[in-house]
Design a protein that fits this description.
The protein is of the alpha/beta class. Helices cover 49% and strands 14% of the residues. The chain is built from ten helices and seven strands. Strands 3-2-1-4-5-7-6 form a seven-stranded mixed beta sheet, with helices on one face. α10 links the parallel β4 and β5. α2 crosses α3, α3 runs antiparallel to α4 and α7 crosses α8. It is elongated, with a radius of gyration of 22 Å. This is Methyltransferase type 12. Keywords: Membrane, Methyltransferase, S-adenosyl-L-methionine, Transferase, Transmembrane, Transmembrane helix.
C-alpha cells in the first residue's frame, strides 16, 4: 500500500486519504450510533485523515493540512459568503499554483538578502544568468539593476506570477521572462548551455532531475546555485548562509 502512495503525487495521496478519513468517520458513527454536530464530525474526519497520512509517510506539513481541512471547510460554510467569492478565490489560486500539481514546486519567493548574496556570487565579467522558476521576478530585476552589464533570463510556468514578472521586467532591456516549464526542451531559454550562472529555488522533489539536466547541458566552469534545497549525493563546493527570515542557504556547484 505504501509503495502505491509513493508512486502518486502527494496531493493525490492527500485527497485519497482525506476521503478515506471521511469514510472511516461515517463508519464509526454508524457503528456507535452517535450523531455529532458538523464541527465535531469534521474534527473526527481531520484526525483520522491526519493519522492515515502519518502512516502513509507523508511530510509533516501535510498532516496539519489533513487535520484542519474539514474543520476549516465546515467553519467557512457557516458564514454567509457569496458563492462567487469562492469561485474568484479558486481562480486566483489556480493561476498562481496550477503547475504545483505536476511539478511539486510551489511558489517560493526569495528574500532581498538572497538577492544581494547572489549579486556577490556573480562573476566579475558580463554574465548570462537564468532563474529557473523566476516567480515574481525579484531576483531578475535586482540583478539587472545592480549589474546592468549582464543578461538575465527567467522561466515561469504559473500564469499570474509570469504576467507579474513580465510586466516587472519590461523596463530592463537586459532582462527577459519566458512562460513555460523548465523541463521543456522545445523552449530555447531552457537549454542551460548558454548561461554562466543557473539559479533555482524549487523544492526537494526535482533536485536530482535538475542535477542531471545541469550535468548534460551546462559548460565546464559555469555555476549552478540552489537556494535552500540540496542535491542528494552531491555536496556543494560552496555554501553561503543568508541571515533572512528563513535562514536560507545558497549552495553552489561549479560544473
Amino acid at each position: 500500500m505504501l509503495a502505491l502512495f509513493n508512486r502518486l503525487p502527494p496531493s493525490v495521496t492527500a485527497l485519497l486519504l482525506q476521503l478515506a478519513g471521511g469514510a472511516l468517520s461515517l463508519l464509526l458513527l454508524r457503528i456507535t450510533g452517535i450523531n455529532p454536530v458538523p464541527l465535531a464530525f469534521a474534527l473526527l474526519c481531520g484526525t483520522l485523515s491526519a493519522g492515515l497520512s502519518h502512516l502513509a509517510g507523508q511530510a509533516r506539513w501535510w498532516l496539519a493540512i489533513q487535520l484542519l481541512f474539514a474543520p476549516a471547510l465546515v467553519m467557512t460554510l457557516s458564514f454567509d459568503i457569496p458563492p462567487w467569492l469562492f469561485l474568484a478565490a479558486f481562480l486566483i489560486m489556480l493561476t498562481v499554483y496550477w503547475s504545483t500539481f505536476s511539478t511539486q514546486v510551489p511558489l517560493y519567493l526569495s528574500s532581498n538578502k538572497v538577492w544581494h548574496a547572489l549579486e556577490d556570487l556573480l562573476p566579475p565579467e558580463s554574465t548570462r544568468f537564468i532563474d529557473l522558476g523566476s516567480g515574481l521576478g525579484g531576483v531578475l530585476t535586482h540583478l539587472a539593476r545592480v549589474r546592468p552589464d549582464g543578461h538575465y533570463s527567467g522561466v515561469e510556468y504559473a500564469p499570474l506570477p509570469f504576467l507579474w514578472s513580465w510586466l516587472r521586467t519590461r523596463p530592463y532591456p537586459n532582462c527577459h521572462v519566458h512562460w513555460g516549464s523548465i523541463w521543456d526542451e522545445r523552449l530555447p531559454a531552457c537549454h542551460l548551455a548558454q548561461y554562466d550562472v543557473v539559479f533555482a529555488y524549487l523544492s526537494p522533489v526535482p533536485m536530482e532531475k535538475l542535477w542531471h539536466k545541469a550535468r548534460e547541458q551546462m559548460r565546464p566552469g559555469t555555476l549552478l546555485i540552489s537556494s535552500t534545497f540540496s542535491i542528494p549525493g552531491h555536496a556543494p563546493q560552496q555554501t553561503v548562509q543568508v541571515d533572512d527570515l528563513h535562514q536560507s542557504t545558497l549552495q553552489v556547484w561549479r560544473m
